[in-house]
Amino acid sequence: MFLAAGCDFASADVIYSGFGANNSYYAFGSRSATTPPRGNPAADADLAQALHVYEAPDFALTSIDLAVRLAAGANRLDVWLMGNQQQPGHQFGEPDEITIEAFRVEGQMTSASRGSVIHLVSALRPVLHSGWDYWVVLSVPDPGSEVQWYSASLDLPPAQQWIGERFSFNQNQWEIAYASSGFAVRLEGEKIPTPSTGSLLLAACLAVLTVSARARRRMA
After folding, report:
1. Residue in 188, 178, 154, 162 with CA at minimum distance from that of residue 19
2. Is residue 202 part of a domain?
3. What residue numbers bound the domain in which 168 lies?
């Protein structure tokens, strides 16, 4: 895990978003994370969406937003930010076994017909690297629970996304598919400034001077 402690940042920027204007999303399309006896068939089922960090430089994650609805059970949800386990010949693999940051949602979801947007603030502020792939995973922790994750806004330009589902009846193996639309999820972060050419040259000169001074002391 890479953390961004001790760095100077600019204001938060959107790293990825499946929301349209004014936090809009497609409320007539969703998939569900479940625990038995919920599900068809009843199963412990997790959901995931992959995302690629296109813009440079790197980002320190500040928040994740999701459009969800509590369909049944306890008002609790686990959200995990995970790395990408690359598979040969595929752009995306599957969610890595290592969790970069875990969020526990309690009492924030609504059972209203079109759900709502929940806002999760990052405590760890992990660094998301430019050019790397990540997954956002949803899982319900309590028996008899179901949480719907809504589809991305139809106002967005057409863009296929890698999504994943994991079912207990399939030995908890991820099933990865290339979907016509992803989920309503947004990641925001603060850009981590890259050192300028001048500062890199200055650092290199200081390092050379330090080595030279130590060498002179040893010779004296």
Report:
1. 154
2. no
3. 12-195
Residue 6 burial (10 A CB sphere; 0-12, 13-18, 19+) = exposed
Predicted confidence band of residue 209 (pLDDT cuts 50, 70, 90): very low
How much is the average pLDDT of 167-188?
A: 90
Number of structural domains (the chain) is 1
Rg value, the chain, Cα? 21
The helix/strand/coil state of 67 is strand
In a domain? residue 214: no
CATH number at residue 121: 2.60.120
pLDDT for 111: 96
CA angle 96, 100, 105 (to 5 degrees): 110
Answer whether residue 49 is part of any domain. yes
| Alpha-carbon span 167 to 176, nearest angstrom | 12
Residues whose CB is less than 8 angstroms from the CB of residue 168 and which lie 6 or more positions away in sequence, other chains included: 36, 43, 44, 45
**Three-class DSSP category at 105:** strand
Q: What letter would DSSP give residue 140?
A: -
Q: Which residues contact 220 (CB under 8 A, 6 or more apart)?
A: none
| Bridge-based pairing state of the strands 59-72 and 116-121 | antiparallel
Tens digits of per-residue pLDDT, 70-121? 999 999 999 999 998 775 555 567 888 889 999 999 999 999 999 999 999 9
- Token pair 């994991």 is found at 166
Beta partners for 162? 178
Residues 120/106, Cβ–Cβ less than 8 Å: no
